Amino acid sequence: MPLRIPLCVTEEEPPFVTAQAYWLRKGTKDRIDFLVDTGAWDITISEDNARTLGARLNELPRSRLTIGGIGGRAALFDMDDVMLQFNCEGGKNWDVFLRSVQVTQNPRGIRGRQGTAHVPSLLGRGFMKRNRIVLYWDFDASLAHLDVKG
Amino acid sequence: MVDEMSSSNWDDKKWGMTFEEFQKGIEDYANDRLWFYDNLDDLRRTHLNKWVAVRNKQIVDSDKDHDELIERLESGGIGLSGTHVLFVRPEDIVVLY
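The joint structure predicted for all components is written out below.
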C-alpha cells in the first residue's frame, strides 16, 4: 500500500506540499513549501528557504549545474545532508534523506525592481523518479496527491 | 535512505517535537499560503506589486524590494522562519514554473 501525500491546490500555481525540513549538518529545522513541478528536472530549495535552515549561499559550494528557464538563469549551490518529512494520510509520515540538494539563488535584478523573478522550492521529476512517486492531479476537481510506492 | 514511520513509532526527542506538533506545523504553514491565494484579489487592492510576509493568516510586513523585506524580517522580531514571503502580482501577469 503506497503512502499518500495530499497536495494543496490553488488556481494560481502548481499544487504544493509542505514538508518539515532538517539540515542535519547544523541541527536546524523549518517548514518548506515545495511546488510540485513536472517541468523541473529535480528537487530544489529556494535561497529563502535555505536561509531559514541557516544556510547562506556564500557558505555553500557552487554547483556544477545552472538552472535555466524562460526567465533567464539562476545559480545553484549544493546543500548536503537534508532530511525532509512529509505528512501522509492515515496518521503517517514519510521521511527522505537527501545526500545533496541544489539551492537556487534568487535572481538578482536591479535592487527594488525585482518583480516576480523568484524561484520557489520545487519538487521535480528526478526526486519523484528516484523515490518511485506517482503524481495524481485531477485538474477539474482541483485534487492532487503523491503516492510513494517505496 | 527512505524511511516510513507513523505516530506509533515517532521519536519526540529525535525530531524535537511531538507527532501532533509536526502535523499541526505542516497544516498551519500550508494554510497560510492558501490564505494568501484565497485573499489575492483583496491583496491586489492593498499590496499590488509588493512582496508580502504572511504569518498566521495575516500580512505582517511588506515591501517593494524582496531583499529589504527579508533583511527586516531577519533583523526584527518576526523572523523568516515560519513566514511566507510572496509576491502580489497584477491579475494580468501569469507565472510559469
